[in-house]
Automatic annotation (TrEMBL):
Signal peptide: none annotated. PANTHER family: PROTEIN TRANSLOCASE SUBUNIT SECE. This is Protein translocase subunit SecE. Keywords: Cell membrane, Membrane, Protein transport, Translocation, Transmembrane, Transmembrane helix, Transport. It comes from Roseateles albus. Component of the Sec protein translocase complex. Heterotrimer consisting of SecY, SecE and SecG subunits. The heterotrimers can form oligomers, although 1 heterotrimer is thought to be able to translocate proteins. Interacts with the ribosome. Interacts with SecDF, and other proteins may be involved. Interacts with SecA. The chain crosses the membrane at residues 18-35, 41-60, 92-110. Essential subunit of the Sec protein translocation channel SecYEG. Clamps together the 2 halves of SecY. May contact the channel plug during translocation. Coiled coil: none annotated. The gene is secE.
């Protein structure tokens, strides 16, 4: 196990961007309910514009940039995956189903054996 520690460095500008994103999100909700008398078009327009501004402010912060980098790295890793063929997927599914059936039979047989030993032989209860 490695003993590397993760250090996060946040500047005051980054904190301000995150605070601005949160404030824009709150403003979007307030505007949506405050514009109820103006009609649904004004409500939704204000909500969507302020939400887009909030998302934009978040993605300009270091947290947003690291989230975008994580998404890119994840997409790159998914492209490296060697996916099974249709035949291999069917075979593996068949193996899983067969294992489940065998395990179910084993557990049923074990349960009935223990039931017989405990109730019939040990306790003498006849059904």
């Amino acid at each position: 196990m490695s003993n590397s520690q993760v250090e996060t460095v946040t500047t005051s500008a980054d904190k301000a961007k995150l605070a601005g994103a949160v404030l824009l999100l709150a403003a979007a909700l307030v505007a949506y309910y405050a514009l109820a008398k103006q009609g649904p078009i004004a409500q939704w327009a204000a909500l969507l514009v302020l939400l887009a501004a909030s998302v934009g402010a978040f993605f300009t912060s270091e947290s947003g940039k690291s989230l975008i980098a994580y998404g890119r790295d994840s997409a790159r890793e998914v492209r490296k995956v060697v996916w099974p063929t249709h035949k291999e997927a069917r075979q593996m599914t068949g193996y899983v189903f067969a294992f489940v059936v065998i395990m179910a039979l084993f557990l049923w047989l074990t349960d009935k054996t223990l039931e017989w030993v405990l109730y019939d032989l040990v306790l003498g209860w006849k059904r």
